[in-house]
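Agenda item 2: 5-O-phosphono-beta-D-ribofuranosylamine complex prediction
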Amino acid sequence: MEKLKIGVLVSGSGSNLQALIDGAAAGELDIDIVQVISSRPDAYGIERAQKADIPVVAFNRDAYADRLAADERIVDIMRQAGAEYLVMAGYMRMVTPVILRAYENRVVNLHPALLPSFVGAHAIQDAWDAGVKVTGITVHFANEEYDRGPIIAQRAIPVLEDDTVDTLEARIHEAEHELLPQVVQLLAEQRVSVTAEGKVRIS
Ligand code: GRF
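Presented output:
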């Protein structure tokens, strides 16, 4: 099968990037990670990309002073690398319409809660503070409404009696490392489409 070329956006540890790198190396994912872009120069995800011989560009805070210009650079870099889809794997910057129009229904985001609950950058802590008994993870297409784009896949994760926010977080990350690669493989198999009503269909 022809491999799907993906570009990955990171801001931090990059453990989800690593899950994609490992899945591709193991031959489980029909993807080629053609480019990584980090929103921060100190993100550990940069090292992960380098170790895997993936071209990586690191932005800094100044690069985002003009958000539209930053996203234009991102689109240029990703297109030059041949990226067909973008995956936001712990990317902590909002993407502007510049990216969303260039990659319409082709920007995938990972969110550590069951959307539409607990949007925003502190979803795990917010779910913990709310005392919910079930939380989870969501993989969705990004659109112009923050954390509200078409949902591709979700997994529920129970909050256990003896959990701390840290043990819950660890289970959430474990689940992310399974679900994100599964979704990316569905994309590679061209099984994901968005209906006119803005819902995702998986064939
Ligand atoms: C993940 O929990 C993701 O859901 C959130 O940021 C975290 C990224 O982790 N948006 P990593 O950088 O992939 O390790």
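Discussion summary: The pocket of 5-O-phosphono-beta-D-ribofuranosylamine is lined by residues 10, 12-16, 45, 89-90, 110-112, 173, 176 (CB under 6 Å).
Owner for follow-up: CH.
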